[in-house]
Amino acid sequence: MRRVLAAFAAIVILSSTGSFGSTPSASIGLYVDNVHLQNCVSIPWSQQRYTVWSWCWASDDGVQAASFAVIPGGNGSLYRGAVQVNTDIIDHYTGTNFMTGLTFYYKTCQYGWHWIHKEDVTQVFSPAYLKIEGGVLDHAGDVMTCQVNQPWTLFAITTRAYFGNCSPIATEPVTWGAIRSLYSE
Fold first, then answer.
1. Is 95 within 8 Å of 102 (Cβ atoms)?
2. Would you say 143 and 25 are in contact if contact means Cβ atoms under 8 Å apart?
3. Are strands 48-73 and 142-144 parallel, antiparallel or unpaired?
4. pLDDT tens across 38-80, in order?
5. How far apart are CA 133 and CA 117, in angstroms?
6. Burial zone of 123 (CB within 10 Å; 0-12 exposed, 13-18 middle, 19+ buried)
7. Segments making up each domain of the chain, as ranges
8. How far apart are CA 84 and CA 81, in angstroms?
9. CB burial readout 84-112, b (16+ within 10 A) else e
């Protein structure tokens, strides 16, 4: 009987804290098109310009604010140009730049897909990518839902924007002997 009560108490505690069976209220990803389908471009030469969009998908909880940074990575290099915030839905934002993070405050609660910002990117050398991280601001890596008391909650990061090599996995030819030697003593 003690075990049953202990298990029941654990389930109640975990479900009340939101860490048991909870899913993110939103997901945010970087895409290289205006319909959130493409996240990679194979670039045949350098100095080609693309637009990168941050897209958010909000669940039934909705989204009223989002806080994140957009950080470059990879062995290549990118030149980041003009940035446009979606003023149709964004009221204002705080923070100084995308490297340290910005918090976007919405005019009204948003549901489903919507874009937050877009920026021009010129790939100088490949491969390179942009990724979403939390940043250094309060509530970094969080969204504010539209629920009572507007709780901040983590969002899921869905995609990076890749420039250069769009193949999902790099492979190279190998023999069975080479594989066997990895596991021999």
1. yes
2. yes
3. antiparallel
4. 998 886 666 778 899 999 999 889 999 999 999 998 888 888 9
5. 15
6. buried
7. 23-164
8. 10
9. ebbeebbeeeebeebeebbbbebeebbee
19: which 2 tokens?
Answer: 């860490």
Question: Using CA atoms, how far apart are residues 35 and 39, in angstroms rounded to an integer?
Answer: 11
Whole-angstrom distance, CA of residue 15 vs CA of residue 11: 6
Q: Give the model confidence (pLDDT) of 124-163 as tens digits.
A: 777 888 999 876 666 668 899 998 887 888 888 888 898 8
Place of tokens 């969204």: 143
Element (H or E) spanning 78, and its range?
A: strand 77-85
Q: Which residue has the tokens 């309060």?
A: 138
Count of beta carbons in the 10 Å neighbourhood of residue 54: 25
Q: Is residue 15 within a helix (H) or strand (E), and if so which, with residue range?
A: helix 2-17
Sign of CA dihedral 52, 57, 63, 66: negative
Does the structural domain 23-164 have CATH classification 2.60.40.680? yes
Query: 89: which DSSP letter?
Result: T
